[in-house]
Design goal:
Belongs to the replication factor A protein 1 family. This is Replication factor A C-terminal domain-containing protein. This protein is an alpha+beta fold. The strands form three sheets. Strands 1, 2, 3, 4, 5, 6, 7, 8, 9 and 10 form a ten-stranded mixed sheet that branches. It folds into two domains: about 130 residues, Nucleic acid-binding proteins (OB fold (Dihydrolipoamide Acetyltransferase, E2P), Beta Barrel); about 110 residues, OB fold (Dihydrolipoamide Acetyltransferase, E2P) (Beta Barrel), CATH 2.40.50. The protein is globular. It contains seven helices and 16 strands. The chain binds zinc ion.
Length: about 250
């Protein structure tokens, strides 16, 4: 069980599950960072994900919480968290360097929350980390290419999932063919629209309705030449500093 603080409104939420520790590559700091995902649920059954990064995630004793939750609910207070909205994923609560959490804290709010629990007690589930993408930096370094080299790659000779690095200057964004596409809320694929109906070829549910996502045509240049690079979705949002949905 959980009581969230540090948000615009306090929310009483239940921990459904916690995941094992995962690792993800962060380009900005050029290293892998560890994280732990925790899944929460409100009284109406809506889910919310909390991601604890670095030491906070490492030190969160999921096995101990799992064991303890077999007998009695555990109330956690999360403080100093950041709420982020990811297109297609909804809201995620992320830890920052200032975040802290407390388990079974002896304060009136926690006692009140304990008292409000009426449902039959359900132990917290423990899952392995669902999605992670660690990278070995040594693998990246040997994949430096110039723009000229990138343009002469033979796609039929590439191993699937190969990543290349290229140091280049962003000359500008070419918007002559648009800068976003209407995408399926669920699978992010482009959808066909005839003005009234929208259809995902993957057969995803119609609701929520399609969302606009970035598809920026960036013109990149280095000493060896220039090339167009498509920047999609989250990466483009980081660059622009606003969600495509807001600008549309
Ligand atoms: Zn879809």
């Amino acid at each position: 069980m959980m009581f969230l603080r540090g948000m615009a409104t306090n929310a009483s939420l239940q921990i459904i599950s916690t995941e094992g520790l995962g690792e993800a590559w962060k380009w900005k700091i050029w290293r892998n960072i560890s994280f732990r995902n925790i899944c929460l649920c409100d009284l109406r059954g809506r889910k919310l994900n909390v991601a604890l990064f670095g030491d906070l995630g490492r030190n969160f004793d999921a096995e101990q919480v799992f064991k303890q939750s077999q007998n009695a609910p555990i109330v956690a207070v999360f403080a100093g968290m950041l709420v982020r909205r990811y297109a297609g994923k909804g809201f995620t609560v992320c830890s920052t360097s200032a975040s802290k959490y407390y388990l079974d804290l002896d304060i009136p709010q926690v006692q009140e929350f304990h008292a409000s629990l009426t449902d039959p007690h359900k132990p917290i589930l423990l899952h392995p980390c669902q999605v992670q993408n660690p990278v070995n930096p040594a693998d990246l370094v040997k994949n430096w290419r110039t723009i000229k080299q990138l343009k002469s790659l033979n796609p039929h000779e590439l191993e699937p999932g190969t990543t290349f690095l290229c140091r280049a200057t962003l000359k500008g964004i070419d918007c002559t063919k648009g800068w976003f596409y209407w995408s399926c809320f669920h699978c992010k694929r482009s959808i066909s629209r005839d003005g009234i109906n929208s259809l995902c070829i993957q057969g995803c549910p119609k609701n929520p309705p399609p969302v606009p996502r970035y598809k920026l045509n960036a013109v990149m240049e280095d000493m060896t030449g220039a090339m167009d690079v498509m920047i999609f979705d989250d990466k483009a949002q980081e660059l622009v500093g606003a969600a495509a949905e807001e600008l549309v």
